Amino acid sequence: MSQATNQSWGGRFSEPTDAFVARFTASVTFDQRLARQDIQGSIAHATMLARVGVLTDDERDTIITGLTEIQGEIERGEFNWSVPLEDVHMNIEARLTDKIGITGKKLHTGRSRNDQVATDIRLFMRDEIDVIEVELKRLRKGMIELADREAETIMPGFTHLQTAQPVTFGHHLLAWQEMLARDHERLLDCRKRVNVMPLGAAALAGTTYPIDRHVSAELLGFDRPTENSLDAVSDRDFAIEFTSFASILLMHLSRMSEELVLWTSAQFNFIDLPDRFCTGSSIMPQKKNPDVPELVRGKTGRVYGHLMALLTLMKSQPLAYNKDNQEDKEPLFDTVDTVRDCLKAFADMVPAIEPKKASMYEAARRGFSTATDLADYLVRKGVAFRDAHEIVGQSVAYGLKTEKDLSEMSLDELKQFSATIEQDVFDVLTLEGSVAARNHIGGTAPNQVRAAAQRAREALAALKAGA
Ligand code: ARG
């Protein structure tokens, strides 16, 4: 490819672009990823131009045939991407003119690369959001079904990572699922603002041709054309919004990852992850490392980085289009890839989690996790809560000294601390009694977990049916 001044805008230039500057300002090495959307947008644009009489039907057909062939060349890896042609838009347009001659040069009538690139990214984002949503749904579904199966499995619940009260494993999984349900809403909300069409804004002020933006919007499946041409070419807040959705999602996945990593350790020993999600150590033969959750936890960092990059990219930019905006693509592409892969990893892994029920149960039994239940029992027998708290505190101190959990003490031992304690205390000191007693909406009782799983299932199905 020659180093001559770019043919698309070289008219007013008296010397060729510096070779380094040409490379420095080019984006084709990464924005060729938008080729499919660029061609899709161009076909709609040509169709609209013919509809309003700016192109003849023959010209439109020649352009569409040429673009369709170029699409094939790109898919087969035959397309020769040229850095001096700067970006995906001018590469495709130059190839079109190579193929069909002068008619190819008419495609750019009534548009600019500024509205073209803004349209391409939105089409790209919409496609990727739909792929990401499929993985997110698969993950939520797997989590809900696992929660339902584990509705009665008892484990310790933690505050400050200290044993607090018994909960069910199903309840814990449904807490994760709630986080993902909110992320899902954020994703769908973001999609609404992505699906608006900048095409027709041209460079910044609109165009003098009699274009019909509703026609192009409908052809491209956009909800509507953008309202303001200056905003249309400069706005990238939909990309920031997507990356902020992604950051919150990854923050949630990193929390789940952290718990999975802890739980697979010998010290917790709460779950097993199948070998296919783990790797070994080259030096320590006994090791089985939870690489997948560790890597998801680690990848959270790069997505936060992209959010900060995009926010900073847009900060203080005057209207309308500025070349700065070319920097939006790499952070966005990497965010899309990271989110899709992390969700896929989780959607595959979560249904395969194998809880070690006996070990979870034993951990819950050891940590005085039913101390609150004993206090509540005393309150029901007429003791004031603060006094009950004190009585239970003394019982726990005794348990620590004698290495006994509350449920392992005899009635006589318990009666030393309060005469109101009777045989029926053992109904509340068992782990099963403790979880069953939290029997209200949002509580950890097994029947509540099953009902919550059913509601979650229905909410997910309703999302599918809705828009
Ligand atoms: N490669 C550019 C971008 O990604 C396309 C728009 C360039 N427009 C311009 N007038 N230089 O933003």
CATH fold-type name of the largest domain: Fumarase C, Chain A, domain 2
The arrangement of helices and strands along the chain is HHHHHHEEHEHEHHEHHEHHHHHHH
**Proportion of residues in helical segments:** 55-70%
Q: What is the CATH superfamily classification of the largest domain? A: Fumarase/aspartase (Central domain)
Uncertain segments: none
Shape: elongated
Largest sheet: 2 strands, antiparallel
Topology:
Layout: H1 19-25, H2 28-31, H3 35-51, H4 57-75, H5 88-100, H6 113-149, E1 154-159, E2 162-168, H7 169-194, E3 196-197, H8 213-220, E4 224-225, H9 229-234, H10 237-264, E5 271-272, H11 291-314, H12 329-349, E6 354-355, H13 357-366, H14 371-380, H15 385-402, H16 411-415, H17 425-429, H18 431-437, H19 446-465
Parallel strand pairs: 3-4
Antiparallel strand pairs: 1-2, 5-6
Helix pairs in contact: 3-4, 3-6, 3-8, 4-5, 6-7, 6-12, 6-19, 7-10, 7-19, 10-11, 10-12, 11-12, 14-15
The structure holds arginine.
Characterization of the model:
With 467 residues, this protein is mainly α. The protein has 3 domains: 4-109, Fumarase C, Chain B, domain 1 (Orthogonal Bundle); 114-204 and 228-362, Fumarase C, Chain A, domain 2 (Up-down Bundle), CATH 1.20.200.10; 367-464, Orthogonal Bundle (Ribonucleotide Reductase Protein R1, domain 1). The protein has 19 helices and 6 strands. Helix 3 runs antiparallel to helix 4 (57-75), helix 11 (291-314) packs antiparallel against helix 12 (329-349) and helix 14 packs across helix 15 (385-402). The structure holds arginine (ARG). The site of arginine has 9 residues, from helix 6.
